[in-house]
Here is the input.
Amino acid sequence: FERTSMKLKILCIDDSKSVHAFLKQCLDSKLESLTSAYNGEEGLKILASNKNFDIIFLDWEMPIKTGPETFQELKKSGNRIPVIMLTSKNNTEDVAQMLGMGVAEYIMKPFTQDIIFEKIEMVLG
Here is the structure.
């Protein structure tokens, strides 16, 4: 991924504006677009009209609709876009639960650019 000229279309669903800004900064040269949603409901609305994303970054703890609730709805709607959970929850049961539900990868906050690249590489091959 780091060595390719591939440009990514990313949907980031996170209530923290700083996470959106950090992802944009980290992935700047690799981004075709970064679409931002600040809660799960907003993210689902965007996906209802546009499924043209390579990856979804999904925060765990958000107002209105949490990451796990949002992910459940994504699965019900037949979503095929890989989801990378972003969270400060480091409980192994939480991680196992989400991976068991079908989340592609898991990133602990705070994270670095290297971790983002590594996880995208793992998800997209």
